[in-house]
Structures are given as structure tokens and as C-alpha cells.
Amino acid sequence: MTFIDLSHEIHESMPVYPGMSQPIFEKSIQVKTHGYAETLISLLSHTGTHIDAPAHMHESGKTLGSYEINSFIGKARMIDVQGKTDIDLNTIQSVANQILDIDFIIFWTGWSNFWDSETYFKGFPTLSPEAAKWIANTGIKGIGLDCISADIAESTNFPVHQALFSNNKLIVENLMNLDKLPQEIFMFSCLPLKYKQADGSPVRAIAWY
User: Fold this and answer.
1) Residue 179 maps to which CATH number?
2) How many domains does the chain have?
3) How far is the CA of 148 from the CAs of 10, 68, 173, 185, in angstroms?
4) N or C: which end of the chain has fewer CB within 10 A?
């Protein structure tokens, strides 16, 4: 089998959503003084390659711990939307026969090429609200993208998040290596940390086929 790592490395100088805190790593216990090593890690729940739950934007929204474990694993397809500024309903419906029998839709925007640059934070393609609502009414578990948000950077009401969360769909952001994915169905995993009342979590997203 072929396995593909779809996750960015987490480190103190990594890109984060504008205005958010960088992760902090403190070598609080070291081999030379204690005989073993441990690192104190401080980071926001939506750092790096991560998953959003409805609780991310709704006080009473579903948390990650409320999902069955199989909600984070399933069959997926990659949809190439490079060069598009808007992933509209026509785009989605044109590939409907490919995505109605799977668990995750992975949108390859090409924006991970701009990771570690200012370009990464603006101009990336997003779903139209109509396309998001259409997806929300399918049987899929969630979507994934290789950009920093499912909504445009300037958004204040987050219509794509809201549409998908309305039917408890999951959103995985900041994926990478989508150019390595096959054109056919593959398996996808985005297991989150198991912490209480999780509104989101970094994930080690992987694909295999």
C-alpha cells in the first residue's frame, strides 16, 4: 500500500491564522538533567493541519468528542479545483457522480504551494455558499482543503462553515501533498486529539491506497 502524509509540521515559526498565537514548545524536562525528555506544548486547537467541529462557531455545536471514531476515517476523492477563484454549485454538481458514494471530499486548490508566504493568507478559492449547502445535504462526513480556511479571509459570518456545520459536517484545513493523491478513491484519516469539549484539533491527516 502507498501512504501519503497530508499534514504540515508544527513548529514555533509556522504560519497561523492571522491574529492567532504561534505554538510554543518548552523543553521543560531534559535528558542531560533528568535522564529523560518531555516537552511542554502550548498551541491553539486550530493550529496547522486541523479539523473543525460545529462547536468551533456554535456554543451548543457538536464537539469532536461527540462523533463516533469512524467519523474521522473513510473513503475519499480528490477534486482538482486549481485555478478557480470560486468553487461553485456547477463545479460540485459536475462531479456529483464521483462524490455521492464517499465519506470525504478533498479539494486540491494548490494553495499549499504558498505555505510560509504571505500569499497563503489571501486569494485562495473557497466553496460558494450554495455549493456548501448542497454538500451539507449529502451523506459525506466532511471536506478537506489545502488552504487556511473554508471561507474567504475577509469573511465575518463564515457562510461555508455555517452551511456545513448545519448538518454536522467536519472541515479539515491546511492539508498538503494533495498533488500526490490518486485520481481514484482512496482512504483518508484525520484523527483529532481526544480532549474534552473539543471545538477543533490538530490532526495527522494521511491517505492510503
Assistant:
1) 3.50.30.50
2) 1
3) 14, 26, 6, 24
4) N
